[in-house]
Amino acid sequence: MIRLVQALVLLGCALLSLNFVGSDPADLVFVGAGGLIFLLSPATPFFNGIHPLARLAITLVIAFYAISCMAGWRSISFVFYFVSGLLFAMSAFWATRYDDRLPIGLALFGGFIILNALLLAIWSVDIWPESVFFDLFRDGRFMGPPGDPNMTGLMASFGIYFFLDRAVRPGLAKLQIAITYAGLGGSLLILLVSGSRSAWAAAAAGLIVYVLVARRSFNMRLVGMGFAMVVGVMVVSMGMFSQSSNVEDVSERFRTIMVQDNSAEQERFGFLYTRAALAVAADHPLGIGPGMTPMYTGISSVDGDPIGAHNSYAEVITENGWFMAALLFTLLSVTWFRTYRLAQFDCFFNDTSCRTIVAGLTSTAVFGMGHDLLAWRVGWVFPVLGILAAFSFHYRSRVEAPRVLSA
């Protein structure tokens, strides 16, 4: 039974970025895995094995979330997203307790690359089931498995850190090297064609942090190969899609960072949605309820779709209250610093290094400045892995050491 649950966790991780219209398959997998975990180990939801203060913080976050649900009318789907995220966290915690070698990272990021390849293969032979899936390309941008180019770009940035970390380590067999570089090149390509400016900025921030903690693992030959790969991927992406109406010119997308040609772009760069949400938050210290921001701001897109805060920090403050926001931001900030220290010791959480985790946390934090992440499981990946690693008793002596060794 234990092996079955572990297999379900890996399956959920592999499918985590896949989104059908109105349903995330990974959510359903984690619901099933969570039910089995409750039967096998009823104490697991208490997260025994991580620091008591972290457990208390998680408990209070859940409590404040419940208060926000009672303070305002709530969107049931958003409550389900939150519960599913907790089930993902509980499943990862339970599975890794039984097997420190469980390849969660490979399932997450290898699964992401495989899903992209499969979706592109189905689309390329003109059998794309539009009645079931979203458009794979829209407005010149690659939507990817999440059905959203921004979340696709964010997940691609995570893949870059994971595969880069494997590439800089010696002792890989030839097949492993080929797979690693294929994953790295694929992640770079997906990041570019997503056209997500937020993901580009987030990827750059995370990469800077990764290089800072892993600088001694690099050599000039590897740096040169990496630079050549980035240039090669950019050239190939522009060549592949220059004659296609499906993907916008990447250089044109870069240009819009400096110059916004339409009112919708100007509103985003002017933080109109964020300012409107914060104005609502000022009057509702307990929150207005999950998913309720558009109901209070009254802002919608040209298609009539409601628009949220477009900022994860503003979203949490507005919908879940001041107290939960302060607690959650403190928890994640402490997690970042503790994981950074573990990264300097080059510790691993299962098959994912703390170098990768701290880079992913950085990327998530920067990306959250321009997008709402609570309803997207992609946004939960590194906060969950970071908290489990940073507050694990297994690493307590290192993270609380008076002096940290250099990488």
Automatic annotation (TrEMBL):
InterPro entries under this entry?
O-antigen_ligase-rel_domated (IPR007016), WaaL-like (IPR051533)
| Membrane-topology annotation of the record | Multi-pass membrane protein
The subcellular location is: Membrane
Where in this chain does the record put each O-antigen ligase-related domain?
187-328
Name any GO cellular component annotation. Answer: membrane
Transmembrane stretches in the record are 29-47, 79-95, 102-125, 151-168, 175-193, 199-215, 222-241, 321-340, 352-369, 375-395
Q: Name one Pfam family in it.
A: Wzy_C
Keywords assigned by UniProt, alphabetized: Membrane, Transmembrane, Transmembrane helix
PANTHER family noted in UniProt: LIPOPOLYSACCHARIDE BIOSYNTHESIS PROTEIN PA4999-RELATED, TEICHURONIC ACID BIOSYNTHESIS PROTEIN TUAE
Q: What is the recorded name of this protein?
A: O-antigen ligase-related domain-containing protein
Q: Which organism is it from?
A: Sphingomonas turrisvirgatae
Read off the lineage from the record. Bacteria, Pseudomonadati, Pseudomonadota, Alphaproteobacteria, Sphingomonadales
